[in-house]
Amino acid sequence: MKKHAGGSGAGRWGVLWAVAAAQLLVVLDGTIVNIALPSADAQLGLGEDTRHWVISAYLLAFGGLLLIGGRVSGAIGHRRAFVIGLLGFAVASFLAGLAWNPAALIGARALQGVFAALLAPAALSVLSLSFPDPRERGRAFGVFAAVGATGSAIGLVLGGLLTEFASWRWCLYINVPIAVGAAVGAVLIPRLAPVPRTGRVDVLGGVLSAAGIAAIVLGISRIETRAGVSPLVLGLLVGGIVLLTAFVLVERRAAQPVLPLSVLTDRARAGSFIAIALMFLAMFGFYLFMSYYTQSQLSYSPIGAGGVLLIHALVALVGSVWIAGKLMGRVPARVLVVSGLLAAAAGLLVLTFLEADSSHVFAVYLLPAMVLTGLGMGLVITPTASTATQGVKGHDIGAASATFNAAQQLGAAIGVALLNTVAVLSSTSYLSDQSATQTEAAIHGYTTALAVGAGTLLAAAVVSAVMIRSRRPDDVSRTERVRVAS
Predict the structure, then answer these.
(1) Banded pLDDT at 200 (limits 50, 70, 90)
(2) Are 143 and 382 a contacting pair, CB within 8 Å?
(3) pLDDT in tens, 60-94
(4) Crossing angle for the helix pair 302-317 and 367-389, nearest 10 degrees?
(5) Do the Cβ atoms of 126 and 156 come closer than 8 Å?
(6) Is the per-residue pLDDT at 485 higher than 50?
(7) CATH architecture, range 9-202+255-485
(8) What is the pLDDT of residues 119-178, one digit of tens each?
């Protein structure tokens, strides 16, 4: 007897809120400690060379292990992986809040990333299997995308509030009740029939993917502290490319690959992966520079800086739920994605005109930029999250979910490293070539990096227009119902 994958209607929407809470955790923790870093540094003595690892350790562990997490989720069951990921994330967060020295904090942040790498693909897999109907799927993925689009900005706002009124440690403790609450909500997730698997776990493929991603991100981040591309930087970048090439070759022959290459052969799905990676590359640099600019150049408090980004978060919520979520199934995914990328690019271009001293900077630059980038995020995440998992065979959906999340995290990690490097090198060059102040040089660095981010989004729009060709909603619905029910 066939049973709807999501169970009753009330049960499915309960699943959605548990998944949304999990998604909030993994996205929130990419940024919540940003504003808290100065306080943590003052208490633990992190130092300039170590400080960025509080963020990078999480992003690297998360992004590097996502493919393995997707494979493990499929092997042990998505519901079980979801609960394990939540409880493990809670424990790691509590340990990070208790950190007594830099090594303890960075190690616990990396452990958060490990459990996030299991949690994220399990959450997206559960959501995709629970909502096969196109109309319900659109609304569900709209909520999921809203959390993804707003979570990073909410992290900055919440980080400012907790740091100013409590302690930087509460930026980590706050995860515990959220994770436990979502784990309790996991009882609503129906038990799905296990998918038979044969063969050994592809350990080699998992190691190659994690090492390749880590080498590339580390190589980019080292450019900032080395005057140009040093032999070490070049070695890391080339080594990362070689490792990822070896990963692809291994996956072609593996009996149970961590990333079945069939997941990438669908043109629309591959286009969605590229679009979301480039969107996060540009936007995480945007979050970083807005935090710097509003606090350092405009002298905003942490709460004020977070409040500016809250506008971005609220518009992203509208764009993902009330626009993209309602239009999915009626408007081609390509139209939504391209429109979102162009809107976000326009928002970054507005910021390339930032001035060192302007009394009207909020109304003329910041407000339009927050609205445009928020709208862009909402329009892109909803359709790409849905397209990334549509039409995937049941035993590969964990890998597709993991790849979608990996694309986000890899884009975010590279974006922070790359755009920060562009800003620092541009600022240094501007300062040495002209009689400029430190403030003018810093703003020149921000605007140059934001221009690179805007160019990246325009390139992503072109790629998306060519690659993302949506299936007919009726065909997708019929195909997924057969696969889920079988």
Answers:
(1) low
(2) no
(3) 788 778 878 887 887 788 888 999 999 999 999 99
(4) 50
(5) no
(6) no
(7) Up-down Bundle (1.20)
(8) 988 888 888 777 777 777 777 777 777 787 677 777 877 887 888 788 889 989 999 999
Structure tokens at 31: 């940024």
- Which of the pair, 20 or 221, is modelled with greater confidence? 20
Tokens standing for residue 372: 């445009």
